[in-house]
Design a protein that fits this description.
2 copies of one chain form a homodimer. With about 350 residues, chain A is an alpha/beta fold. Chain A has 2 domains: about 1-105 and about 265-350, Isopropylmalate Dehydrogenase; about 105-265, Isopropylmalate Dehydrogenase, CATH 3.40.718.10. Chain A has 13 helices and 12 strands. The first copy, chain A, has a 10-stranded mixed beta sheet with strand order 2-1-3-12-11-4-5-10-8-9, with helices on both faces. In chain A, strand 8, helix 8 (about 195-205) and strand 9 form a beta-alpha-beta unit. In chain A, helix 1 (about 15-30) packs across helix 11 (about 290-305) and helix 9 runs parallel beside helix 10 (about 240-250). Chains A and B meet through strand 6, strand 7, helix 8, helix 9 and helix 10 of A and strand 6, strand 7, helix 8, helix 9 and helix 10 of B. Bound molecules: 3-isopropylmalic acid (IPM) (2 copies). Chains A, B: Keywords: Amino-acid biosynthesis, Branched-chain amino acid biosynthesis, Cytoplasm, Leucine biosynthesis, Magnesium, Manganese, Metal-binding, NAD, Oxidoreductase.
Chain lengths: ~350, ~350
């Protein structure tokens, strides 16, 4: 197979970990006889620094014309504490999601046996946890109208959802549940929000088309508790953009390391793959960033194009690295490897 | 001291646990020579059933004319799964908060030594945790304009904040931090939301008046992770309504039992005290509900009126009950007491 892949490695540890994902994909191409062509684009703080724009037009065009996007991370503390900055790295990511129509963000959360004891949660709580979170990614309060009064004393954000926006991701989530343990939990705040009530209504209607899947509902505050009390109760979680941001980050730590978690963002025509850890500026350039989340994002990319054997080859190599404890300092305090060496091992193993 | 106290025990386990709080306050009145007069009002699902209104006018009037409100819980599953119900129990609580101007919800989260091993988190993670969460309670997306298009296909909620709304709770939170470990963490989503950027700006300005308090910022998704990874890093957390709902419920499970957690909601003229566990309908009438959260809410009430010795008498009695394991099934699986017996012990001990 021939795939054109846009590489947007972005800020902080983004470039270091993305380089390992590319190395891994090169190994796959070599072993399985594929051709993957990588083309780089600027995004985030580095794009602002170089062009004034967190998502330059060339980058967007590049993404539109490739088969898939491999994303690193964006964000820089110099923007975070400056509430009046009008250009911010995150705008690049948000615009990309919107322009590419990536309406569903899929985040698998799994407790790896070898890492269970690194979790802040007790072993008996997390054992068997295997969740797939479907977060709506191009609607809600992220993209609703934002206002700041002229005198700067009143600010607002609109959380809006249409039936269509809810429907398309709901179908994806139900289909995923059918291939898994056949349970779908909608997380919302229907006791307070009008938009949540629309979610509940639309999802309930669609559920009749997937009668083999058990549907239940959880208020987001309760979901935030249940995620800690009993995470293995969940199979597929479906939720709107903001709640998905919070709940999926919360879920990301239960497995023992956020450095392992990959994500896929999909739409009707485009797709993007991204580690969920963010730019982690404190670690930049030190060779301590865990590349496995980026590498597993590459595996999700292969899976998306139905290259299942190839994706499994990556997963096996990753599990081997974990088993042998050939990992970065976050998982190995006594004898850690650098970001690059972990990438080398995984690529060689393939 | 003479206090008029409105009792709104509400739905589910609300009445059972509130009865124990009243018993405890009666014991305090007797021992310390105070006069507490309790007057009951209807609220929630039971108020809908009896009057059609989740917050009848008489209840509101009662609350306005008393010194403090003791609240039980509201909510009933028959409303939760009916997105088109136009009258819902939660409206009673929300209206009460708004009408009484209870703009700050204060939730202490503490790891009790005797309960640490019941936590889903590991001992070394939660040891020393002692957080006070200041959640804004009368603004944001809870109270912004809600819309549903005529054809029912588009729904929206507006999240709006004014400078004044942010200022008043921010001052309370900084003052609390001054009396504690002098650290305040603002939780927001300033990289995406205009309203969060206003929060960050206003809080940063006010911080200059409290130079002995260290201020830092956390995005809400990161806060949801940090709460599990390292909860003892927090002292006072300040946040807006929706984020406060999620983060405080998440925090509530780290101590080992949500059945212990009390809250105070305060405004300029009125105040209300409430266990945070909710109506827990499955447990209603079984005598298994933990009354300690309601009893500790009564302690917060006394504290609010500067009856510190009295509040401590309650806390000591509660700690004794925990020490002797004279508790309900959630904390004691071998030889549990009923809700009432736990209340009896605490009142007698006082
Ligand atoms: C960087 C930020 C805008 C983004 C989000 O909130 O969506 C990130 O937290 C994520 O989850 O991908
Ligand atoms: C019942 C509900 C409306 C309420 C809220 O979301 O504020 C509850 O969850 C709480 O936190 O007191």
């Amino acid at each position: 197979m021939k795939l054109d892949i846009a590489v947007l490695s972005g800020d902080g540890i983004g470039p270091e970990v993305t380089a390992q994902a590319i190395k891994t994909l090169d190994a796959i191409a070599h072993t399985f006889n594929h051709s993957f062509i990588f083309k780089e684009g600027l995004v985030g703080a580095i794009a602002i620094d170089q062009t004034g724009n967190p998502l330059p037009d060339e980058t967007l065009e590049l993404c539109v014309n490739t088969d898939a996007v491999l994303f690193g991370a964006i964000g820089d503390p110099k923007y975070d504490n400056n509430p009046s900055a009008t250009v911010r790295p995150e705008q690049g990511l948000l615009k990309l999601r919107k322009e590419l129509g990536l309406y569903a963000n899929i985040r698998p959360v799994k407790a790896y046996e070898t890492l269970i004891d690194k979790s802040p949660l007790k072993r008996e709580i997390i054992e068997g946890t295997d969740i797939s979170i479907y977060r709506e990614l191009t609607g809600g309060i992220y993209f609703g109208e934002k206002k700041l009064s002229k005198d700067g004393t009143v600010a607002s954000d609109l959380c809006e959802y249409s039936k269509e926006e809810i429907e398309r991701i709901t179908h994806l989530a139900f289909k995923a549940a059918q291939k898994r343990r056949k349970k779908l939990t909608l997380v919302d705040k229907a006791n307070v929000l009008e938009s949540s009530r629309l979610w509940r209504k639309v999802v309930t209607e669609i559920a009749t088309q997937y009668s083999d899947v058990a549907l239940d509902f959880l208020f987001v505050d309760n979901a935030a508790m249940q995620m800690i009390l009993n995470p293995s109760q969940f199979d597929v979680i479906l939720t709107e953009n903001m709640f998905g941001d919070i709940i999926s980050d919360e879920a990301s730590v239960i497995g023992g390391s956020i450095g392992l978690l990959a994500s896929a963002s999909v739409g009707n025509t485009c797709c993007m793959f991204e580690p969920i850890h963010g730019s982690y500026p404190q670690a930049t350039g030190k060779g301590i960033a865990n590349p496995i989340a980026a590498i597993l994002s590459a595996a999700m990319l292969l899976e998306h194009f139905n290259l299942l054997g190839e994706a499994n080859a990556i997963r096996n190599a990753v599990e081997k690295a974990l088993e042998l404890n050939l990992t970065t300092p976050d998982l190995n305090s006594t004898n850690p490897l650098t970001t690059e060496k972990v990438g080398d091992f995984i690529a060689d193993y393939i």
